[in-house]
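Researcher: I'm preparing a figure for a lab meeting and need a structural model of a single chain. I don't have an experimental structure, so a prediction will have to do for now. The sequence is pasted below. Please return the structure as C-alpha cells so I can convert it later.
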Amino acid sequence: MKAIIFGLLLITNLAFSQKKCNLIEEYAAIFKQNKEIFRNEPVLYETVNELDSTSACSRFVNENKTYIQYLLDNFSDHNKRKEKLIKIKDTVKLQNEFIVLLKQDSIFGQVMSKLSKAINNEQDRDTITFDKLLDISVKFFSIYKIKDGNYYAKICGGLNGIKQTEKNRLPFVEAFAFSVIFDHYRSQEFNMYNELVKGLRELNKLELGIEEKERLLRAQGAMYMFMKNNKVLKELLISEYKKEERNLLFYIKTNPE
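Model: Understood. Here is the structure written out cell by cell.
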C-alpha cells in the first residue's frame, strides 16, 4: 500500500533539492482556476496541479494533492475571489488574476507559509490527543438529506461539520484526517464506504423525530458517535499515523495502540 505522506516531508525533502520549497512562490504552478458552463451559467472551481520534477516542491505537492486541495478548499476565501473572477472570459487572464487574489489571501498565506517551513524542517509541530484526531475525523461523515424516509450520507471535504463544531481549527490535522479517509474510501483493508453504509443502516432503524430538520440534526450526531466507536476508522487512523509519525505536522500525546 502506498504510504501516505500528507502534510509532511520534513527532513527527507531536502535530500531531493538544495533549494528550499516555498509553496507561496509556486502558487502559479500549483494551483489552477477552472471555469465551466453548467446550465448556461459559469461555474468556477480550483484544482491542484502536478509539478515538474525540477521544482523544489514537486515531491511534496505531487504526493499530497488531496491534502493541499483540502487546505485550498477550506482555508481560503473562494467567495471573495468568485466575485472578481466570474466575469473574466479569457482563460489566461482568469488564471493570472486568480493567482494575484490567492496571494492576497492572508489566511491561506499563513497556512502555506507554515506548511513550507514544515517541509523544510523549520516548523514546530502541534500536539494533540488521539481522541481529538478521532473527533475531527468523524466530522467528514456527513448526513445531507432524507429521501423516501431514508438518510443519505457522503464523505466530503467541503460539506462537513468542522466549521459548526470546531472553535479552534487545526488545518493540518483536518487535512490529514480527510486525506486518509478519502483515499481509503474503497480500499480493501480499510473500506470507509462500507463503514458509512453500516452507519446509515443503523440510523434507519431509529425514529429520530417528526420534523425533517430535527431528524437530520439528530441523525448527524448519531453518525458522529457511530464513527467515533467504529473499529475500522480507528485502525485506519492508527495505521497511517504510525506509518508517517516522524513526518506529520502533529504529534499524538500518547502513541495509539
